Structure formats: structure tokens, C-alpha cells
Amino acid sequence: MDCIFCKIAKGDMPAEKMVYEDDKVKAFYDIHPKAPVHILVIPKEHVASIAHLEENHADLIQKIIYTAKQIAKDQGLAGYRLVFNVGRNGGQVIDHLHLHLLGGWKGEQDRKVHV
Ligand code: AMP
Ligand code: ZN
């Protein structure tokens, strides 16, 4: 399948800068950051979006969110946003599930971002 996040997950395509990897997930910096810290957490398994979740993906979703929380802690983010864009009307461009971890802002104005 011609999915760029599958290629990154398999290591067939280099991602920006890798942040974390284990057998289930991978995390790397977004190439077009919308915040001082903008990291994507993806499952290695191809799931197109939140709209494509099955009941047996519960552990995977927990893992993705837990990974984002750990990275936020490691990066010393005082606060952050976790965003799943779902479908074209929801702003999703890449059809491989990914969680945006956004943070590192200094003031309220900076936080008004669209990802
Ligand atoms: P979305 O709009 O939710 O589908 O988000 C896709 C995100 O992937 C965007 O923020 C892009 O900047 C980012 N992106 C696209 N290609 C790459 C890549 N090769 N490495 C890192 N981030 C990417
Ligand atoms: Zn994929």
C-alpha cells in the first residue's frame, strides 16, 4: 500500500526526527510544525483514521495516548494539546492514524493553532 506513514513505520522512509519507537508505535517530529513542539504518534499497524477503529484497537489507542503523555513529560511540556483529525472535513490529510502532540507555547495567543 502506498501509505507514507506505513513507510515511516517500517523504516522504509526516513521521518524528520525520530522521538520514540517500540513494537507498536512510532513518534517523530512533524515536518511542518504548527507549534514550538509538534510531534506525531502513529501506530505501526495501518489504521486509516479514528473512524476506522474496531473494538480490538482499544489497547492500541491507549498505547498511542500513553506514548504522547510520556513524550510530553520527557520534553517537559507544562501543558499540551492532543489532536486527532478525522476525515477530510476534519482536516485529515494523511490516511494513517496519527495523534498530534502540540505544545511549548509561551502565551495564550500562540495557542490558537489549526493542525
Ligand atoms: P493531518 O492533517 O492530521 O493528516 O496531519 C498530517 C501531518 O503530517 C501534517 O501536520 C504534516 O505536516 C505531517 N507530515 C506529512 N508528511 C510528513 C513526514 N514525512 N514526516 C513528518 N510529518 C509529516
Ligand atoms: Zn499506513
TrEMBL record:
Any GO MF annotation of the entry: catalytic activity
Motif (Histidine triad motif) on chain = 96-100
Residue ranges of every copy of the HIT domain listed in the record: 4-111
Task: Report which superkingdom the organism of origin falls in.
Answer: Bacteria
Return the InterPro entries for the record: Histidine_triad_CS, Histidine_triad_HIT, HIT-like, HIT-like_sf
Where are the active-site residues found? H98
Question: PANTHER family recorded for this chain?
Answer: HISTIDINE TRIAD HIT PROTEIN
This protein's name? Histidine triad nucleotide-binding protein
